[in-house]
Write a structure and sequence with these properties.
This protein is an alpha/beta fold. The chain is built from six helices and ten strands. Bound molecules: adenosine-5'-triphosphate. One of its GO terms (cellular component) is membrane.
Amino acid sequence: MTRAVPIELKSLRWSVGNLTILHDLSLTIAAGEVVALLGPSGCGKSTLLKLLAGLLQPSAGELWIGDRCVASARHCDAPEQRHLGMVFQDYALWPHMTVAQNVAFPLRMRGVSKSTARLQADAALAQVALADFGDRKPALLSGGQQQRVALARALVAKPAILLFDEPLSNLDRDLRETLVHTMADLLRAAGITAVYVTHDREEASTLADRIVHLAQGRIVSITHLKGNPHAISRVS
Ligand SMILES: Nc1ncnc2c1ncn2[C@@H]1O[C@H](COP(=O)(O)OP(=O)(O)OP(=O)(O)O)[C@@H](O)[C@H]1O
């Protein structure tokens, strides 16, 4: 597994015209820490995730990943330069590929041979308890299974950071409860730095070392769940 890295937001702002969506957020996420972003619809959770991913550029402030400033108003590293994985609400699996081909895809893009990529994809599928599903097409899997495939695809590339955008919100309650425990165990085992956007307080409490509560584009409070001694937090 790639060494986990810290993330630091230094007065990070994002505006559209005169409208400021995120107001000078400052926060340090320790290497290997799992942080949940929790807040009502429209508070800026997805916007912050997009800034972390490199899909949006800050209007002011700086974003640091490890020992590198990856984004400010002056420059913005592309998503592929940030060594991160993303898991979305809609799974985003390619329907024409088998499950194993979907999981192997990030490795094939990096030039890993077909046979090695398949071996690593099978190992990642075993991690999410889908070892026997590699040769099926995604459409033949349930929503929960498809989301586990998406998680395997994110893990197989051994990213330094994993970003989750409400990954369980399309699933029914029982399945959400099971999968959130699977994800929590996998993230702990991988020791990966993760940022997890959710509306669901219970989901956040199960997964996160800290819950960062957002409202109207500001960090309004932070709940510590594990007392991680490496975590430094500031409320802006
Ligand atoms: N490109 C844009 N132009 C103008 N306003 C935007 C743009 N992108 C986001 N917003 C506004 O920024 C605010 C925050 O949006 P964001 O999608 O980050 O919220 P969210 O907390 O993720 O909401 P939800 O939980 O409903 O997904 C919203 O009021 C949204 O309308």
